[in-house]
Amino acid sequence: MSKPVSMYAPIPMVAGPVTLHPDVIEAIARDYGSGQIEPDFLPLYKETAGKLAGLMGTDDDVVLMTGEGMLALWGALKSCLKRGDAVLTVGTGVFGDGMADMAESMGCKVTKVSLPYDSTIGNGDSLAQIEAAIKRCRPVMITAVHCETPSGTLNPLAELGAMKQRLGVPLLCVDAVASLGGASIDAKAWNIDLVMAGSQKCLSAPPTMSIVSVSPTAWDIMANVNYQGYDAILPFKTIYKDGRCPYTPSWHGVAALHAAADALLREGLEAAFARHAIVAKQCREGLARIGVPVFPRPDAVSAPTVTAAMVPEKYTWPAWRQALRERGLIVSGSFGPMAGKVFRLGHMGTQADPILMQKALAAVEDALR
Amino acid sequence: MSKPVSMYAPIPMVAGPVTLHPDVIEAIARDYGSGQIEPDFLPLYKETAGKLAGLMGTDDDVVLMTGEGMLALWGALKSCLKRGDAVLTVGTGVFGDGMADMAESMGCKVTKVSLPYDSTIGNGDSLAQIEAAIKRCRPVMITAVHCETPSGTLNPLAELGAMKQRLGVPLLCVDAVASLGGASIDAKAWNIDLVMAGSQKCLSAPPTMSIVSVSPTAWDIMANVNYQGYDAILPFKTIYKDGRCPYTPSWHGVAALHAAADALLREGLEAAFARHAIVAKQCREGLARIGVPVFPRPDAVSAPTVTAAMVPEKYTWPAWRQALRERGLIVSGSFGPMAGKVFRLGHMGTQADPILMQKALAAVEDALR
Questions:
Q1: Complex confidence, ipTM
Q2: Do A252 and B28 touch (CB under 8 A)?
Q3: Fold of B11-20+268-368
Q4: Sorting pLDDT into bands at 50, 70 and 90, what band is B1?
Q5: CB B31 to CB A16 under 8 A?
Q6: Burial B282-304 (b: 16+ CB within 10 A, else e)
Q7: Which of B31, B196, B322 should we substitute to test contact with A (largest number of A Cβ atoms within 10 Å)?
Q8: How many CB pairs under 8 A join A and B?
Q9: How high does pLDDT run on average in chain A?
Q10: Do B34 and A330 touch (CB under 8 A)?
Q11: pLDDT of B9 above 60
């Protein structure tokens, strides 16, 4: 099958859903049997989950649920937390702080360490702030975001994970929606109990699947909480116990993830991560050359999967977006306090491609002329 | 594109996910842009929702969410009900009674009218029982199931809807997962506030999309409850208000539903319903001829989309399933009290096909020889 080209843009550089991998299109372009009946489905599910565990750097169980990435986030919180539980959210951007809103809506006692959106964990005295907050609120769970897409940053998590372990916090829950497959994740070494991800970012699949790794501690806590709902993760334990699926599984969704993970493993994880890092560097250096400043402060860690840059001063965001679109380049805007000021180039998955980035930079340069 | 044939069975007659419609495969076998960015997506969403509203017999807003059909069920309950709310569940099968378990897990005060699983609403004194229960518990919501798949029955809902209206119950919430597109639904005439459906039954699409119609009363109640979660329906109101999508929408999922609804509308709804009814009759009469009794009692309404029949006495269920599979016929088992005793032929969507049914009946006959 030939390389899929978006009908919508010659230069698709959105922060997801990204252009599909050709193998993913091939996997979804067909009929399957019933995932509840055919004996081929469960082995595919388990094999896919295992490949994704490899991408996460864990040997914990991995659960695949039908729904957009937010399903993984809600599922992890609701499955592990009861009303009144203390939660510490670490935010360096819209999604990190958004976890606080989610936990608050569930009636949890939330302590929020909200760091500047252009920084990453480790900048300034952020680790000391987090440590003090943990000692103060004694949380059941710490939440953090690996790649903060709207800010274009990647949070280092090793020290946070070590702190979690040292201070005896039961759970560390990490949103890796925009990093899984594009950046190294070492869930085991970083003591992450729940890695949450989605299909439509670095995996280059449609936005139909949620992925969550579950540590033994997380399974125990889930069994105790016994939350029920579409986003409940505990029912998926039966897949590992007795091969029974809760609900009707999406064979297409699992097949898409299988093809996506396979493509990454065939390339080699180190090679894939290097490709993302190289294209990200190309993007940052190219923008600097053109005179477009990036959003994160210089000592923050830039994301290898997405670059957040400043909308040029002589443009409004809608006019800038339109100027780029007229040159075939589709980019994303940003959210929260950065909305209207920051635009984003998503170079993840199939879009982490040096030729595509070259075209994107040429379009940016031309629009600025 | 040629008619898709399941690799898994020459005669796929499962109760869903059914064999995909060729137009659906064509719709999902491609790359799309970002549903949050490209101007083509929202018109497609709204047009698809409108077509599905037509299938439901309503002009209420219809919401399309990414997830398996159970997402529609959980979403409707959690979006409309608060802890302590009185709910009346009407069950003539596993799914109808299952709604009681779901509402109970949410802390609602549940009154359960559980009718025999081989009957349908209207049999015996069922309507009097329901009326008495409504007067006793004064529910915020009545739940019912249109097609009770595990029982192979279709509940008449006109009288229940009239009763709901007459007694001033705010909400009637109907699971139409296994009937939408295969049987006439007149949500407006039947006073249904929430019709809940999924993509993988009569619509012949993969199990990735949930569909819910929302009456003005239901929107008001949702705004008051203000439930938050992946399955929250209220955030989808913004699509109709200001064109903003909550979360990342699935363009593939919506395109699949669009193709599915289009195929049904092209055939003509009356013709499609007639096709289902004819194949269902062919199934019941064929089984009677062979000597396989159907499960519902004679005065119950049989489903036009699925037939539940008794596993022949000389077979265990696994042996019967295997005997049919050896003849190329894949059927479904049943759940709850019917598990092991009842098997099901799903003749919905693409599988409501007289030739396929002829092959299925020949396989059953051969297995019994």
A1: 0.96
A2: yes
A3: Aspartate Aminotransferase, domain 1 (3.90.1150)
A4: very low
A5: no
A6: bbbebbeebebebbbeeebbbbb
A7: B31
A8: 176
A9: 96
A10: yes
A11: yes
